[in-house]
Amino acid sequence: MTKPLIYITGAVMLCIIAIASWNTFTFLMQIDDKNHELTFMGSSGWQWHDKKQGIQIKRVEAQLPALRKVSENKEYASLVTITENGNYRGFVFFNEGCEEGSIVSERVTYNQTEQPKLEVLHCLHGKLVYMKTWTSVPAIKWQGRVGNFEFDEDLNEWDFTPLQQAYLKSVAELI
Fold first, then answer.
1. Whole-angstrom Cα distance, residue 86 to residue 64?
2. Rounded to whole angstroms, what are the CA distances from 166 to 19, 61, 92, 135, 151?
3. Taking Cα atoms as reference points, which of 56, 58, 51, 65 lies closest to residue 165?
4. What are residue 56's DSSP bridge partners?
5. Counting beta carbons within 10 angstroms of the beta carbon of residue 80, is it exposed (0 to 12), middle (13 to 18) or buried (19 or more)?
6. What is the SS3 string spanning 70-110?
7. Which of 18, 73, 74, 133 has the highest local Cβ count within 10 Å?
8. Sign of the CA dihedral 99, 103, 106, 110?
């Protein structure tokens, strides 16, 4: 009677070990995948600003910082920075190679009430890039498309405090 009990106990223990190993493996893979976003498209120097939201920050000495977020499907990264004159500058880098200096353009209609809008992608550093400037904090759902290249980012969920603080420090004057 003890021999079958030993075999059953051993089988249960092996199952527990296998399940725990699998859970540990998947957990570590998720961490690795999330950390891989910090080097998305060969970029370096990014750190997590809000890991839960997937928002990263990059600080470079003598420059204003930038925030970015890699899309869930890993097709593009949205990036926002603030310029020396206080405007917000947005970029969407698509994970698609291109010939330096080339552009892709298309007239796009987003809804029935407005006229078609000319949308343009520029090739910068070998990647297709969409660009936009805002005069104030972009608290919008930022969307766009040119051909097969589409993006959709809720900028109203981003915390732009680090950009604003860095900008204010850069223009502050001692009295």
1. 11
2. 47, 11, 22, 17, 27
3. 65
4. 48, 68
5. buried
6. ECCCCCEEEEEEECCCCCEEEEEEEEEECCCCCEEEEEECC
7. 74
8. positive
pLDDT tens-digit readout, 88-122: 999 999 988 899 989 888 888 877 888 888 889 99
**Considering the entire predicted model, what is its pTM?**
0.76
Half-sphere exposure of residue 32: CA atoms within 13 angstroms, side-chain side = 6
Would you put residue 126 in left (φ > 0), alpha (ψ -120 to 50) or beta?
left
Residue 34: pLDDT band with limits 50, 70, 90 = low
- 47: which 2 tokens? 């750190």
Residues in CB range of 136: below 8 A, 6 or more apart: 88
CB 162 within 8 A of CB 49: yes
Place of tokens 């939201």: 53
Q: In which residue are the tokens 């990264």 written? A: 77
